[in-house]
Design brief:
Layout lengths: L7 H12 L5 H8 L3 H25 L4 H17 L2 H4 L7 H14 L1 H11 L9 H11 L6 H27 L3 H7 L12 H8 L3 H24 L8 H13 L1
């Protein structure tokens, strides 16, 4: 089996990053001026990407999983119905901060909001896997963190996982999906990587070609992560600071 050190895997992965649906500041700002239907489509994409950090924050403040699920669903409806998008200003901060501030405001006003929503009868479907969310959340209880720290860590994990998934998908498009399984331990967040010699034997490749492949994939992963982080910022110069924040959140 060849390791596939062709640089096209790098280019394909980066193409995937650039075409990744923009679900951050630009999506929020554009949805504020779109029709209701287009705004709801944008919101659905936002929910799909970021529902778990929001859920984890709400769940850390609640003793009831069902209530946390309901509040998470209602929060994204609140963003749309209360025209929060139209007030979003990318120069005012990072999307992560905007989402947290909006969530705090939502929870503080939840009694009045729930009463109004019952009268209005609005419904939105958010792709939440409650069983999976509870399993993830229960694993997080060992950290005994504040809801804010839970949110920050899950935000960081969402961005890190995005980069990993994009790299995996890029390799799959190149017909090298099996390669990702072999090199995953060498990428950030991987564990117990084999020796280069053992991996070369598994792949029926030379040790030098394996080293080249892993070097390229690590570089690709870093670029994908930087691209995803950049989507959440108003100023590209803040990418390095935000990545340091992500790493600190994961290591805390």
């Amino acid at each position: 089996m060849r390791t596939g050190t062709d640089p096209r895997c790098y280019e394909t992965a980066m193409s995937g990053a650039l075409s990744f649906p923009t679900t951050h500041w630009s999506l929020i700002l554009s949805s504020a001026s779109e029709t209701r239907s287009e705004a709801e489509t944008a919101l659905a994409e936002l929910c799909r990407t970021y529902w778990y950090p929001v859920y984890s924050f709400v769940r850390a403040r609640s003793s009831c999983a069902d209530e946390a699920q309901d509040l998470t669903q209602e929060f994204f409806l609140y963003l749309l119905d209360r025209d929060v998008f139209s007030a979003a200003n990318p120069a005012a901060g990072r999307f992560r901060s905007f989402l947290m501030t909006s969530l705090r405001n939502f929870l503080a006003d939840q009694a009045d909001r729930r009463s109004a929503q019952k009268r209005g009868g609005n419904v939105i479907s958010v792709p939440i896997d409650l069983a999976g969310a509870e399993e993830r959340f229960m694993r997080d209880l060992q950290y005994r963190d504040t809801p804010e720290k839970v949110f920050d860590r899950q935000w960081a994990l969402t961005l890190v996982t995005q980069a990993c998934d994009q790299l995996r998908d890029a390799l799959a498009r190149e017909g090298k999906g099996g390669l990702f399984h072999h090199v995953r331990p060498f990428l950030p967040g991987g564990c117990d990587p084999p020796s280069y010699a053992n991996l070369a034997a598994e792949l029926n490749a030379t040790e030098s070609s394996v080293k080249i492949t892993i070097h390229r994939l690590r570089r690709c992963y870093r670029d994908l992560l930087r691209a995803n982080v950049g989507h959440t910022l108003a100023d590209p110069k803040e990418v390095d600071d935000e990545i340091r924040f992500l790493l600190n959140s994961l290591s805390a």
